[in-house]
Write a structure and sequence with these properties.
alpha/beta, ten-stranded mixed beta sheet, 12 strands, 35% helix, globular
């Protein structure tokens, strides 16, 4: 059952209404071609900077044809229907989006590249091949984004005024605020930016108008993003589903952060969200509870080990650069320094006094203050989760569906950061390179 992504729970009290299971028929279907297709939109949200560093010479040449080189001339000026803000004089990020997605200029309905804390860049584009309006949100690329990531305490997704979103559903506070910001910008609402002096053009309900346009009649809504953008997109999907009940709203989240939404919200999101996690990626495993657990384990191992701490850190840095496997801290120390006397927190001892010492030490390591990281409620990845694993011998990937509890531990490995980068996902989504 575990391999099928099914969590088996023994029900003692049948009156417990908190145990809910989403029927298979109501869960979103896993279409690998659709998942690959919308990853292009998530990647394009990073703009020209990330696009150019992948292939500096070739992409610089291809980007030139889409630049708004002479905006003062009527023939080169962007059309009034397209709202572009915060993209400089030549609109280089917009040019990168058009170059990567190969969409018509009139199908890009909105692009806001302004970036502040809890205010993330995004664009709205009509994808005629899938008959959907795509909202793509950029991932972490600035100090403002990092500060948004760091505000990880749970916060309510919506209040009683938003029908369709349970007031007991919680999400990552920084990304909840970012999702609300994108929601307001899409519908021309007040955002509070620049003291509430947004331009008249930005006050238009662009998403509502697009759905009412005959050219986009019957279109669905797709929300997507990578990293910070994925977390924001997953929460935004809840808000859009509550507003557009007659329209299909789907979310594709690539490498979303781990401590994102509460358990009840995670179960509900299986109806419309697909998350993709690659290898040992640390971000989907980063939650307040996991950080507290890793901190406790490190403290336990270093306090038990008799070696100087500079040796532990030195060999650890060498292992991170040279090793390819993810090994527990205690196991790595036993391998490097046999007989160093390191035991895991759960190990038993034949020495009674030593056992008492461990119990006393464990009680001092485990958090007792209610304000500590581990005191927060558990938060999970959204939707149905696909885990992509690298097969080194075959130079390919395998994809399998896993349960959200599979990412309840941070893996320390050399690939924990590289597996998160957008260009690594580009490799995963190459034709015939991964199989579901």
């Amino acid at each position: 059952w575990d391999r099928m992504g099914v969590e088996v729970t023994r029900v003692v009290d049948t009156t417990d209404v908190s145990l809910k299971v989403v029927a298979e028929s109501s869960r979103i279907q896993l279409d690998w071609e659709q998942i690959k297709h919308f990853h292009q939109f998530a990647s394009a949200a990073y703009g020209y900077w990330w696009y150019i560093i992948q292939s500096p010479l070739g992409h610089c040449c291809s980007l030139g044809a889409y630049l708004n080189c002479c905006p003062a001339l009527c023939c080169c000026r962007q059309k009034q229907e397209m709202m572009v803000e915060g993209d400089g004089f030549f609109h280089p990020n917009l040019a990168a989006i058009r170059c990567q997605l190969d969409v018509k200029e009139e199908d890009i309905l909105m692009f806001d590249n302004r970036n502040r804390i809890e205010e993330v860049p995004f664009f709205l584009v009509a994808d005629r091949s899938t008959k959907s309006l795509v909202v793509s949100i950029r991932g972490t690329l600035s100090l403002h984004d990092m500060l948004t990531d760091l505000r990880g305490e749970p916060g309510k997704m919506a209040d009683e005024s938003v029908k369709g979103v349970n007031v007991d559903w919680h999400g990552h506070q920084g990304m909840v605020n970012a999702a609300r910001y994108v929601y307001r910008r899409l519908h021309g609402m007040e955002t509070g930016r620049d003291g509430g002096k947004d331009g008249r053009c930005s006050r238009r309900d662009l998403l509502g108008l697009a759905l009412a346009t005959p050219d986009y009649a019957g279109y669905s809504i797709v929300v997507t993003g990578h990293s910070l953008g994925a977390g924001t997109a997953a929460i935004l999907a809840f808000l859009l589903r509550a507003r557009y009940r007659g329209t299909t709203v789907t979310c594709y989240a690539y490498s979303p952060p781990g401590g994102l939404i509460s358990r009840e919200a995670a179960v509900e999101s299986e109806k419309f969200t697909v998350s993709v996690v690659v290898g040992d990626d640390v971000i989907p495993r980063t939650s307040l509870a996991n950080i507290a657990t890793l901190s406790r384990d490190i403290k336990h191992v270093t306090s038990q080990c008799q070696l100087p701490k500079f040796k532990i850190l030195g060999y650890g840095c060498m292992a991170a650069c040279c090793s390819t496997s993810n090994t527990p801290i205690s196991g790595e120390l036993d391998r490097l320094f046999p007989g160093s006397g390191v035991s895991s927190p759960g190990d038993s001892s034949t020495d009674g006094s030593h056992r008492e010492l461990l119990i006393e030490e464990a009680s001092s390591i485990l958090p007792t203050n209610p304000d500590t990281l581990s005191s927060f409620p558990s938060m999970y990845l959204p939707g149905r989760i696909l885990h992509v694993e690298d097969i080194h011998s075959a130079n390919s990937f395998t994809v399998s569906e896993v349960h959200r509890t599979a990412f309840s531990e941070i893996l320390v490995s050399p690939r924990m950061l590289s597996d998160h980068l957008p260009n690594h996902l580009d490799k995963v989504f190459q034709p015939n390179f991964a199989k579901l």
